[in-house]
Design a protein that fits this description.
Layout lengths: L3 E6 L10 H9 L2 H12 L5 H11 L5 H8 L7 H11 L3 E9 H10 L7 E8 L5 E4 L14 H7 L5 E7 L5 H4 L4 E4 L1 H10 L4 E2 L3 H13 L7 H13 L1
Parallel strand pairs: 1-2, 1-5, 2-3, 5-6, 6-7
Antiparallel strand pairs: 3-4
């Protein structure tokens, strides 16, 4: 039986060289408010959804031109292109799961000529009076660390027969990554996996990820992560 790999990829700080959401609000938001909100999120005092609502409120006014011009200064990791080609050549199903916003994801992917990638994210609009208004089409009140419930996307796009891979770096990936068989982690996600004794592969860029996945493909006896199977099964049973 042919192995099927499903790959789920965080966006901010993973596909991009910087955390785009953080960069936007640090640039245009009220500095003291932004710092407090981010600290409250990372210390679990507020949910991801609440943090986005507060961060958008911290930006008093912003035009689409201002926001677009700033987004255009930010970059996608150059090694992602090779990884994208690798996924296409191997006919892998791969998805971007972001707790950031579609507004900048679409623009950055389009700037890089790879805008047809399937993604799930929160929604952001700029009103006529230059206010940022977020909305959360994929929220799940059970999971507070991501306003876009990444776990549900993984469950909806995989089955017991699939080998699932998660690639991430931050706070919104902590709960989600645990539902996948193979975790690629750096930065805050790596620290979390270390602390919770969750098996993972460290990586610096997508070249590291690609090389490791090539080894997984070639491995004769590939085993799923037992704890991930249990977590997925628990959600399947609830459904």
């Amino acid at each position: 039986m042919k192995r099927i790999f499903k790959i789920f990829i965080d966006f901010d700080g993973t596909i991009t060289t910087k955390d785009v959401g953080d960069a936007i609000f640090k640039k245009f938001g009220e500095p003291n408010s932004v710092k407090r909100i981010i600290n409250d999120l990372l210390s679990d005092k507020i949910s991801a959804k609440e943090s986005w609502l507060q961060l958008c409120n911290s930006v008093k006014q912003i035009s689409s031109n201002e926001l677009n011009n700033f987004i255009d200064t930010l970059e996608i990791d150059p090694t992602f292109h090779q990884f994208y080609n690798f996924c296409e050549q191997n006919n892998f199903d791969y998805y971007i799961l972001s707790d950031g916003f579609d507004y900048y994801i679409e623009r950055l992917l389009k700037n890089d000529g790879i805008e047809h990638i399937k993604y799930y994210a929160n929604h952001l609009t700029i009103t006529e009076d230059n206010k940022l208004v977020p909305s959360f089409p994929y929220q799940d009140e059970e999971l507070l660390t991501s306003a876009n419930c990444k776990r549900n996307h993984i469950i909806n796009h995989s089955s017991d027969d699939d080998f699932t891979i998660y690639i991430g770096d931050g706070n919104s990936d902590k709960e989600t990554a645990q539902f996948c068989d193979f975790i690629f982690a750096k930065d805050d996600l790596l620290k979390f996996c270390e602390r919770e004794r969750i098996s993972y592969f460290p990586y610096k860029d997508f070249n590291d990820v690609r090389l490791r996945i090539e080894k997984l493909i070639a491995k004769r006896n590939l085993k799923k992560r037992h704890q991930a199977e249990l977590k997925r099964r628990e959600v399947y049973m609830q459904g």
